[in-house]
Amino acid sequence: MNNQEKLLEELKNILLQDKSLPLKNSNLVFGEGSASANIFFIGEAPGLKEDQAGRPFVGRSGQLLTKTLNEIGLQREDVYITNIAKRRPPENRDPSPLEIAKYQPYLQKQIDIIKPKIIVTLGRFALNFFLPKAKITLSQGKTFLVDNKTIMPIFHPAAALRSTKTLKEFKKSFLKLKNLTK
Q1: Torsion of CA 84, 168, 158, 152, to 10 degrees
Q2: What angle do CA 68, 120, 89 make, to 5 degrees?
Q3: pLDDT for the residue 1
Q4: Which CATH number is 114's domain given?
Q5: Measuring CA to CA, which of 37, 76, 143, 163 is 20 to 30 A from 118?
Q6: Contact 26/67 with Cβ under 8 angstroms?
Q7: How many domains does the chain have?
Q8: CA gap 121, 3 in Å, rounded
Q9: Could you tell me the sign of the dihedral formed by the alpha carbons of 69, 59, 82, 131, in that order?
Q10: Which residues contact 55 (CB under 8 A, 6 or more apart)?
Q11: Domain that holds residue 112
Q12: Are 159 and 127 spatial neighbours (Cβ–Cβ below 8 Å)?
């Protein structure tokens, strides 16, 4: 286990012990992938399948994410995948501002440990974490420099599953991502 992996494991254990965090009625979904990934994906919060598996993006959205990664020559193990909120909100609702704020230091620490070249925000909640006033429909597929970090917003895979137009934009953004990583 390298130093980054050890630091992530320590952070996960701290998170498990933190009694001040909301959403305690669901399982921890910390994140997974390479501790030295160049690409770091962030979603909003785990869904039901993720809560059950304890892994991010394993439901239908995750299947689309994995398939699209494969299409650009990447495996899930090559990247790091997590969410802002580390536990599932009830009824699959959006995470509240308070929940996002409580989990924010843990997400920031994950980013600090991994030091990715590109952070891909999946959907508006992850985008607004870095760019609070940005709109996903206007920002998706573009790159932004925020605090010396390259941020690339992409539609959430769940949105891509609901609309063929959004799916086309989602796929197009992944092709741009591939070119950014060359």
Answers
A1: 0
A2: 95
A3: 78
A4: 3.40.470.10
A5: 163
A6: no
A7: 1
A8: 25
A9: positive
A10: 29, 32
A11: 3-180
A12: no
- For residues 70 and 7, what is the distance between their CA atoms, to the nearest angstrom? 28
Q: What is the mean pLDDT of residues 51-57?
A: 96
In this model, does residue 95 exceed pLDDT 90? yes
Separation of alpha carbons 63 and 57, rounded Å: 7
pLDDT at 42: 98
Q: What is the 3-state secondary structure (H, E, C) of the chain?
A: CCHHHHHHHHHHHHHHHCCCCCCCCCCCCCCEECCCCCEEEEECCCCHHHHHHCCCCCCHHHHHHHHHHHHCCCCHHHCEEEECCCCCCHHHCCCCHHHHHHHHHHHHHHHHHHCCCEEEEECHHHHHHHCCCCCHHHHCCCCEEECCEEEEEECCHHHHHHCHHHHHHHHHHHHHHHHHCC
Measured distance CA(56)–CA(85) in Å, rounded: 11
Q: What is the pTM of this model?
A: 0.97
* 177, pLDDT greater than 80: yes
Both tokens of residue 11? 């952070």
Residue type, 62: G
> How many CA atoms within 13 Å lie on the side-chain side of 149?
22
Question: Which of 75, 9, 14, 7 has the alpha carbon at shortest distance from 41?
Answer: 75
Amino acid at 67: K
